[in-house]
Amino acid sequence: MPVVPPLDSDRYLSYQGLAEYLRAVEQAVPHLVRLFTIGSSYEGRPLLLAEVTNRGTREGLEKPAIWLDGNLHAPELASSMACLEVLRLLASAHGRDEFVTDLLDNCTFYICPRLSPDAAERCLTRGELIRSATRPYPFEENPRGLVPADVDGDGWIRQMRVQDPLGEWKISKRDARLLVRRSPDDREGPFYRLYREGYVEGGSTGPVQLAPDRFRLDFDENFPFQWKHDGQAKGSGPFPLSESETRAVADFFRTHPNLFCALSCHTFGGMILQPQPGSRAMPGEDAELYEMLGSRMAEVSGYSFEQTASEGATELCRNGSFQDWIYESTGVLAFRCQLWSLPRAAGLDVSEPSRFLGSRSEIENVTVLRWLDRECEGRGFSPWRPFEHPQLGQVEIGGWDVLNTWLNPPPGPLLKAEMEKYAKLVMTLAATCPRLAVHKVEDTVLGYTEGGRAVRVSESPNFGARNPAPAAEGAGDRQPLRRIRLEIENQGFLSTWVTRRALQDGSVAPLEVRVAPADDVSLVMGQAVVRVGQLAGSSTAHLLRSQDAVWFEGCDEQQRLHLEWLVQGEGDVAFELHHDRAGCLRLSSRIRPDRAIPVAPPAPPVRTPVAPLTPPPSVFPTVSAETAEGAFPRRATPVEPAAPTTAAAPPAPAPAASAFGQTSQQPAGTTRPGPFPDRPTSGRVFGAPPPKPGPTFKPRPLPKSDAEPEPAAPPPAAYMAGQAKEFSPASLTRQSEFEPFTPAAAPPTPANPGSLPRRAPSRPAEPPPSSVPPDSDFPEAPPPRVSRIPAPLLLRRQKGSRQ
Prior knowledge:
CATH topology of one domain: Aminopeptidase
Radius of gyration: 44 Å
CATH superfamily of one domain: Zn peptidases
Distance between the termini: 100 Å
CATH class of one domain: Alpha Beta
Number of helices: 14
Number of strands: 25
Helix content: 10-25%
Strand content: 15-25%
Mean pLDDT: 77
CATH architecture of one domain: 3-Layer(aba) Sandwich
Shape: elongated
């Protein structure tokens, strides 16, 4: 298996080297990295983008995503190297580092390392400091004046100083390589004029005039938000998104609603910037969020976090800014990271960034120059060399290597350190993404339907059996009635709406849940498409109430919600949860085949006919035949007991198996007395209140004596999604109803006129302990209600009440 190649930090990669590295990483881990082209540059170079995610879990568009870009400004080469370092870290650490693995399993990274490939190529090959694009604007041809060019032929455009008594600069007394400003009262020379190395377009016929910039376009001022014309904002272009590069980026944001955050990498300054609000003030919740995240990123990277333009970021936040457009137009969280600060690396205090973007004192410049001599072996400054200029005469060419010192860290360990800082910062920001998850799925069978009629679970003839009977032909109309509950939650730090600006502008859609039952399943209750709004994140409580734990009194829970449907059928029920910024989830629920609801057999069970039992003589009143079953007669004539007779009892046959798969338990040599010998017994105790009319139930075994205990069978399993939970079938049966009993086929017992057959003494039956688990949806079984009044006493009380 190919190995992710290391990233060489000893040089800045050209476009060809950058493209080759991207392809090598894609070939090493094709299941994680895919290359795309989102557009092309002015000179036809593809704008390469790497999608990095674990596609084994979900596709990239189905996860929350973060956008990373570099080289929006061509001379800022370190930004493209930092993006490649993030790519290398993600590709090599997946499966080895738990944190990175979790990120790629649940998040997508879109990495576009070089947005201005044409101008960056000129910076690398010629040292030409072009802002963003090589498309000539606003001039098609070079205007008259001094134009930057490589005059001495060394392949690099440096500085050029020309001695002139009217010059603005003079040589420093602390270091002869430096030029310092001429003081107001300084009359001692020599003095110099300072230019970029180049030639005078149109010839030098008089004082040197600087030519207007031919390549003025600035991609970071070409976006629609607060765009101003080139006359008001230099470099903004003829109209918003006029360049193919910026238009490609805007189209990508439009077609990828899963983006929750964007981090644009720049140099220099060593700071993290938030968007600058325009005419509308930033919502307080968003300002608090930027403060929270910016401070954390600054803590991880060592950079400073600048909130407002008044704190030194005035020169860095412009009209038509990419960062401001992302936040204001799409509601996506946007940051701008300025890598590398040469004064800070040299040990200087950079508490005022705006000052270091302008002038510095002579001592500060000397400190920086000597630090470069020590750390970079003098590569940061080229000694002044005399050169005969064809137009200007005697000049000196040399000076600062601005591209590899001030704008970018020198290649080597310093560049490597900045790349690692940026990678840590990105990992911290990506970990805050919203994470849509299903905490719990409950699929409970409430009953079944038979011919369009709903039937309770307890009314099934095979309810509670260990091995339910298989479905029979012609029984397709008996389908389980299932209640499916989903518990959905946001496990991320950010809310699903990410920013309050997105809610204000309506640029984020609500969470949508779609239900897709199988062909043999129908939706009884609930909607097939449910829009349930937004879910808060773990940061929402702190954003709404910025209080210490001492005074915090809690807030409404908005990170979790419950949904419920009622379906009919045993097949799969598929669910799809979709949110633009929190991702997409798919799951299905079904009842397990071996736990399906039993259906009625095609034919009634065959029962062995039993001869009617002759009722033995009794001391109880005789019940008239005209009385309805289960009712007491109005008149009763006592019958004198007959003389007892003794007869040998035949051997008891083996217990007969009932039609319900259970064995009828009846003591040998005994019979079941009943008031109606020509009718099957109803199963209730003689003298007890009559049962209510209702469905018949399966027989329950007669209690045994203490000498013949029967081992208790394990309780059946409930129908739950993903697991079987124990429960008691008795909890679904009304205790006032008794189940019928059909006696087994046994020879009749000879009548005993003196007394009734007597059973072995037994202890009073105690209610079994409930086996309903604590989290079961089934109710707890109530204690059995048994009358403690003897039957004769109960009869006498009823007779007295009639009188």
